[in-house]
Design goal:
Blueprint: H1 3-16, H2 24-40, H3 45-61, H4 70-85, E1 101-106, H5 113-126, E2 131-136, H6 143-154, E3 158-159, H7 167-181, E4 185-190, H8 198-211, E5 215-221, H9 226-238, E6 243-247, H10 256-265, E7 269-273, E8 281-283, H11 286-293, H12 299-309, H13 312-323, H14 329-341, H15 345-349, H16 367-377, H17 381-385, H18 392-400, H19 407-415
Parallel strand pairs: 1-4, 1-5, 2-3, 2-4, 5-6, 6-7
Antiparallel strand pairs: 7-8
Helix pairs in contact: 1-2, 2-3, 3-4, 4-11, 5-6, 7-8, 9-10, 16-19
Length: about 425
């Protein structure tokens, strides 16, 4: 994500790094390049103008900190302003003290509302909540079925009523079910249209009036660029939204929507979808995203992913093995599997400061790790504990072996 913008801004910051002196003329050249980079990223012109003006005023009117060179100071100002443009601080769901918390997802058709409903249910469940999904998209063919499939994958209950088209009635029934089943979060998946129309807005306003949701979140396809910003602005004026979920951000190389939507609507980006899998969903942190765009990495996100996926008991057992100078292929396999839960290897490496730009031309095939897993699974326990005994004949046997009545090995070889 943000590939084009990130590359342009990183080239600019590299020119500034280490500069002992920056003249007013140098600063204007830098700001011109920043302006072009943002405009090419499809950021709103007025926002770009205000953004560069603020940087210029701060850079010319500020004394250089003792610990920073003038070049580093300008980079710091750019980063701070980029963070401010993206929202300043993270904004989370405000859970009501009197459950259930009702979250209403709105947006146009094709923006990814149904999948987002599942992803949101998954993330609030990890926070200790007990979500209920509600199917209020009664128009799109198979929309209810899609939500039921997502709910089954996550083991999250789904409420639907296919005998009526009255979405307000369905939502009210779902609230009663939630209270009886002790579900403390209700996520309502609403219908969308190919474009904003009066019928869509009237239905959503009626639903809002009857259900009184605690959060109305607009789901927007980030790849539509300025259209995404216009959609967000219209929904906010007509319906009143509390936050925004940007989907398909992994395919958005420009980033104009993410950089414009907060400034235009005044509403925060709360979550971003960075892939098709149900785990590819993150809380939005403006400061971390600004660091990623400028190629400074995002160590805090790596830590969050690790804390979420790594088994502490296994980590402690591994630490004891390493202290005893013991690390066999079983330990390696456990580490590999836990790393895979964090996402693709290339996406993790890009979060490490300084590696993003160096890896842009390097293709990392995650199937290589699947092949390694298959090889280790094809070994005997003795071979995994003592790899030194792997002579030529044993290696040949492992290379030829497919699966030995092992569903796991069979599954791995099917992926290969």
């Amino acid at each position: 994500m943000f590939e084009g913008l990130s590359e342009r801004l990183q080239n600019i910051t590299r020119k500034l790094t280490g500069k002992a002196r920056i003249s007013e003329s140098d600063l204007k050249d830098v700001l011109r390049e920043v302006k072009l980079a943002l405009l090419e990223a499809d950021v709103n012109y007025k926002i770009v103008k205000d953004f560069t003006k603020t940087i210029e005023e701060k850079a010319l009117g500020q004394d250089v900190l003792k610990s920073l060179t003038p070049g580093q100071q300008v980079i710091k100002i750019v980063r701070d302003e980029l963070t401010s443009l993206l929202g300043g601080t993270e904004s989370k769901i405000n859970f009501t003290p009197n459950p259930p918390t009702v979250i209403m997802l709105v947006g146009l058709q094709g923006s990814g509302k149904t999948t987002t409903a599942g992803k949101l249910a998954n993330i609030v469940r990890k926070q200790g909540k007990k979500p209920l999904l509600v199917a209020c998209d009664v128009y799109r063919p198979a929309a209810i079925k899609q939500l039921q499939v997502v709910g089954k994958q996550l083991d999250v209950p789904v409420y639907s009523n296919e005998s009526t088209k009255d979405v307000s009635l369905i939502a009210k029934q779902a609230l009663n079910v939630a209270m009886s089943k002790l579900n403390d979060v209700v996520i309502i998946d609403t219908a969308g249209r190919l474009q904003i129309d009066e019928a869509l807005m009237n239905e959503l306003k009626e639903l809002k009036k009857n259900v009184k949701p605690h959060e109305i979140m607009l789901v927007v396809d980030s790849m539509t660029g300025q259209d995404a910003v216009n959609i967000a602005d219209t929904f906010n004026k007509e319906l009143g939204i509390d936050g925004i979920v940007l989907t398909k951000l992994d395919g958005d190389t420009r980033g104009g929507a993410a950089l414009s939507v907060k400034a235009i609507t005044g509403k925060p980006i709360k979550y971003i979808a960075v892939g098709e899998k149900l785990n590819d969903f993150e809380e939005f942190y403006p400061d971390r995203m600004a660091s990623r765009i400028l190629g400074m990495g995002d160590i805090l996100s790596i830590i969050d992913k690790a804390e979420e996926t790594f088994d502490m008991e296994q980590a402690e057992a591994l630490e004891k093995s390493l202290r005893k100078n013991k690390f066999d292929l079983d330990d390696y396999l456990n580490q590999l599997r836990q790393m895979k839960k964090m996402g693709s290897f290339s996406s993790i490496l890009k979060l490490i400061p300084g590696l993003g730009s160096k890896l842009k031309d390097i293709k990392i095939d995650d199937k290589e790790f699947v092949r390694i897993e298959a090889m280790i699974c094809s070994m005997t326990k003795e071979e995994r504990r003592n790899p030194n005994i792997l002579n030529g004949s044993r290696r040949l046997r492992i290379a030829k072996r497919k699966w030995n009545n092992s569903p796991r090995i069979k599954q791995i070889y099917e992926v290969i």
